[in-house]
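Design a sequence for this backbone.
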């Protein structure tokens, strides 16, 4: 490949990947819309959620480090079984949106807090 072809390929790749990331749903607004009412903005459960579900735990770095991305997606998709504490989200979000929420929860809420 000559120089021109190489830079053309690089530009094409840059344009394509920026398009792709623009299309992927953003997890943050989805989390705030669907999860905040119980799990709080930062993953610390709201007072109301604690009253209604005394065993609700914080979605924090310690807990999330033990929960795989796949289990997280499964919980969001199918709900959390014990009782009907957390309803399934499979009818409210597309699989792509559920994946985006799971990524947001893992990467942002699950980020270790500076000590
Ligand atoms: C109606 C309140 C409510 C909403 C809305 C809700 N949850 Fe939950 N969630 C709960 C309760 C209650 C539990 C069960 C107690 C626990 O284990 O934390 C739970 C459990 C979980 C768990 C832990 C499962 C485990 O293995 O212990 C995760 C992760 C989770 N929720 C993520 C989410 C995400 C992400 C959303 C938004 C898509 C969401 N929840 C929306 C109430 C809710």
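Sequence:
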């Amino acid at each position: 490949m000559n120089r021109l072809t190489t830079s053309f390929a690089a530009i094409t790749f840059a344009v394509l990947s920026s398009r792709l990331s623009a299309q992927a749903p953003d997890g943050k607004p989805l989390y705030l819309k669907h999860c905040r009412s119980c799990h709080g903005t930062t993953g610390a459960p709201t007072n109301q959620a604690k009253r209604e579900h005394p065993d609700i735990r914080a979605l924090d770095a310690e807990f999330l480090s033990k929960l795989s991305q796949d289990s997280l997606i499964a919980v969001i998709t199918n709900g959390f079984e014990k009782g009907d504490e957390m309803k399934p989200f499979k009818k409210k979000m597309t699989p792509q949106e559920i994946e985006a929420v799971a990524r947001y929860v893992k990467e942002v809420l699950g980020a270790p807090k500076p000590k």
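The pocket of heme C is lined by residues 34-35, 37-39, 49, 53, 55-57, 59, 67, 72, 75-76, 80, 85-86, 89, 101, 105 (CB under 6 Å).
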